[in-house]
Amino acid sequence: MDFDKEPLGKGKDGKDVYLSEIWPSRDEVQSTVLKHVKSNMFTDVYDKISKGTDRWNALDIPLTKR
Question: Across residues 48-58, what is the average pLDDT?
Answer without folding.
Answer: 86
